[in-house]
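User: For my dataset I need records formatted as: sequence, then structure tokens, nothing else. Please produce one.
Assistant:
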Amino acid sequence: MKLKTILLLAIFISMIGCKQQEQKKENTSKSTLEIPQPEKTSSHLTNWKNAINSYNRNALRNTYETNAVKIISADNILTSTSEIANYYGIQKDKITSVESLFSVEANKKRGITYEIVRYTLDNQTAHIQIVIWKTKDEKVIREFEFTETYTAAEVNSSEIAKRRKLWMELCNAHNAENLVKQLYSKNTMYFNHKPLIQGTEALTKEYNYMNNENYSLQLDPLKLAIVNANFAFEIGQCSGGYGGKYILVWKKEADGNWYVYIDSNI
């Protein structure tokens, strides 16, 4: 009888121990799931994010070139660190995450990098930026940016490819006026470390060198990011008359065609 009691007691203690061990494993699993994953991002993106979230205008100014350009729309363009810092300084939403979708060195000598960035705000909206970075005094700062709200959309990228092909055909036909007329938005913008060029008439004059019969250009996209149903950001490699990188922001307009809304090269 005593032996039976001892055996039952041993089984009972063993059962309690197993239950406690299972509970410990369950708690450990829950705790592990709650640990946030670290962001995979560069230090200059982190610095920019922290400056935005601090609402500190001095910190914001330190992340931009003195004459930086931020395009909000064709009718709303900021052209200095002070204007950009004031813009972000009054924003209420904080950036919860930021990551690089694509980055490429555009000009080693001048320390220029092109990047496509995605970030999310604490109101759950996602945004995609096209950014031009400049290394100055061993510090990476922003020289140019354009942002659009990200929304999942089904876009036939072959339509953009056809427009890019037409761009090259018209460029290599040595008729800058026709190229700009057919492929560029009426309120198009061109950034090339000069005062921002706006409108098709001004861009046609800027592209006058394409009328030289010896000029030719090939565009090879390195990254095409679909931002939403009406915008796509492209970074690519030129060859021919110009051998550097390029940026094109494509915009789908009312006629259903894609046009160049923003153009940039270094």
